[in-house]
Amino acid sequence: MPKLLEFFRRNSVIRRESRDDLTLERRYRAFKSLLAGNNQALELLTDLERLIYEGRSFTQDEALGLAETLVGGVYDLVEDLNALSGGAFPELFDRAETIGIKALRALSRRRSFDSPLIVLPLERLSLENLDEVGGKAANLGEVGNRVGLPTPQGFAVTASAAALFMRYSGLQETLGRMLAKVDVSDTAALEDACENAWRHVLSAPLPPELEDALNSAVRSMVSRLGPDLRLAVRSSAVCEDSGASFAGQHTTVLGVVPGNVASAWREVVASIFTPRAVFYRRTKGYSDQDVMMSVLVLAMVQARASGVAYTVDPNATTMREMLVSGVWGLGLSLVDGSVDADFWRVRRDDHAIVASTTARKTERLKFLPDGGTTAEELPEHLRTAPCLTPEQVARLAEYAQRLEDHYGMPLDVEWALDEGERFLILQTRPLMRAQELPQAECCEFVPGHTPLLAGGQAASPGTASGVAYVVQTSHALHSIPKGSILVAKQTSPAYVAAMGKVAGIVTDTGSVTGHMASVAREFGIPTLVGVGRATHILPHGQEITLDATNKVVYPGRVREILSEKKPVNLMKGSPVYKSLQEALKLIAPLNLVDPEKPEFTARGCRTLHDVIRFAHEMAMRRMFSIADDMDMEAGPAVPLFTGLPLNILVIDLGGGLVDLGARRVAEIEDIRCIPFKALLDGMRHPDIRWHGERDSSLSGFDMVVSGSVFRTPQAMRGHGGTNYSIISNEYMNFHGRMGHHFATVDTYCGPVINDNYVMFSFKGGAADVGRRTRRARLIAETLRWLGFRVVQKGDSLRAEIKKYDQKRISEKVDNLGRLLGAMRHLDMSLSDDAQIDWYVAEFLKGNYTFDRNRP
What we know:
about 35% helix, D-amino Acid Aminotransferase, Chain A, domain 1, Dna Ligase, domain 1, single chain, alpha+beta, elongated, nine-stranded mixed beta sheet
């Protein structure tokens, strides 16, 4: 951003002084540069729009890089326009600079964490502190201080404290450089970079004021709760528990003795740089600074039971039931998916249990007096006993209902039951519900297919097919092949780093209320958990079909139940996504549509697209009215009568037309330009029907060129205004504005094969974006059949073909003329993708009217 501002300042002086009169040749070079820059700018604009509309993940730096290149390119357009016009539009520099800087500032905006507050006690927190202490801490303060439900005692270490630590230790710059170029889809590279970053954080010194504040807060808790106090040090990163859950992505350290809080705090901060956390936030559109770590320090209770409650079923379309799951002891083993849990389905209106499952539980997690946690074997009588009574389930459901009523949305609630049978709320966050997916059109089992296994719980619904990849704990994530079905012993947040690769997930153990299940729903990945012996039954390396909705896995590919998945836009609503949306308001809208309107001025440019459009239109006008400033023999623009309902102005750089003498209107017979002849021959093919009559008489006064009025035929009117062609004997640059779309044909057609090429671009239309895109795809498919290399982006495309002899280059240009004539209105007709193949085939057969009755 600073470099670009200097670019503006330096060139705003140099370029505004470029007003000398130029020769036609030099102006033409500026014009050619402008045309190339115009195409590049429109491509960059399309690339930025695609980041928003295609739903793929992108980083702030990627969007900013594209925008900076676009802004610089637009400024080059303004320079070229002033070069070819003798400095006629100096005010356009100001408009490009003002708009460009605003757009880049929107994309460059980064959160700052510079509050002097380091520690805030939980009793002072509410959702008003969200930006400073993150969702986990702010929500817990809200629950205790505003909803009035019991929560543990504790305090939050602010995000500003973590930012202070990063600045003090120099980690902010070091880790920024270390992770900036990491491709999160390259799991091996991601793991290496994250391990390096983790080590840097764990070994970095704490600022003295941070260390003092932590020790003071801990001493205060010890004085209130006694020396046997044990603490949970939990992540509460800014942006956690918001529109993106970040479920299980960051570290929690349990059973911390008071003297080790500083070390545990550093470990939680370092968890920002685990592979799963980096993958998750980059995929969801959060920068490293967006997720600055606040930390929540809580007094632990030796929980009798712990678990999770969902205030609605995340996989159901109705909201009639709550889900509750729980285990004996601490709940870490439940949310990380390492054990099976007791499960209750509870009716919302009266909190009655409508279904329940009691898991066999062999151990419980407890914290140790000297710090840390341990897994303790359960007495036999507790192994098959539910960890909650029906009365306790109903009381917990009542708490969950009160929380949902307060927040006004479905919630994911973590809870603990202490030895005095008092419930404590440990966490609340918005519930990540599954995407609405079509149900498999089958009964429980698909007729004719024998399942490999059935049962378990649908953590994320949907169907998928792929090679079964059975992992053990020792498997590296980077070895998981793309498109496979991941089969694992248990759910784990660690597998989030592989969610960009896998098509589905099946696990032996786990719960729909676990962290990985929550993220799977966010990513729209079909996931079946708690099925028992999947790692033993499903054949490693063989294709299987997962129907998570109906809880079945089949051998092979079961086409009957597979459907094309609607892509999940993981970026939507994220800070990076929102900043690009804001920037695009200054970049993409086109307000200057009609050049004849009074607001079509440099001052009227409100977006970069407006500047591009204005510069292109003014360059065309200046180039084709160049005879006002030049000797007429230098090649003035002349109108061309073709018999088509098109206004065409021609400028001859030499050898493109015969000597017209005193005549001021050229006709078809006057053209010597080889590619221009071919293009018009294609447009004038007898089987192509143009709207309007072909009238060879010259009547009416409706064209002005170089200040002179010319009589023009009726057939030259309409179809989007004036079209321009710059020609020589072997070169043509044709710019067509036909109705609401734009087409450019740039070609050299000479005797040397290596010099010959055709480049074609097309964009726009009058219909909605879906129909415009279909027509662009129709043109693209036709061109591919004709041998062109084509790149299509939405309703725009670019095509090229090179190194053909003169005869075949002429044939390709002739085909382009036929295509432009035949397909100019098809955007209004293409309502279905299925129509495209038919239109392509008919065009290639010569049915340019697309008559369905033609044999």
